[in-house]
Amino acid sequence: MSKTEKPRSNVWYLLPILFGVIGGIIAFFIIRKDDPRKAKNCLYVGLILMFIGIMFNMLVTPSIPELDSGFNINI
Question: pTM of the predicted model, to two decimals?
Fold first, then answer.
């Protein structure tokens, strides 16, 4: 018995683009039996976008002067 792959729409890539890793995991589990290659790619897109987001936050956060002042909290 051979598995037949049913091609899925490229719209599935919107899930990891909009929701990151969570969207990639959801897309992976929904389409993994019909199109395993696209399912892995959706998961990879979610991971790559998460990594890009972390790197962006690491680069931008130090340049915001309000974050260096200790938030003006007196205890």
Answer: 0.75
CB 53 within 8 A of CB 68: no
Q: Take residue 43 and report the two structure tokens written for it.
A: 């998961």
What is the C-alpha to C-alpha distance for residues 18 and 4, in angstroms, rounded to an integer?
A: 29
Q: Which pLDDT tens digit goes with each residue over 19-45?
A: 999 999 999 999 999 999 999 999 999
> With bands split at pLDDT 50, 70 and 90, how would you rate the model's confidence at 13?
very high
Beta carbons within 8 Å of 27's beta carbon, 6+ residues apart: 12, 13, 15, 16, 39, 42, 43, 46
d(CA 42, CA 15): 8
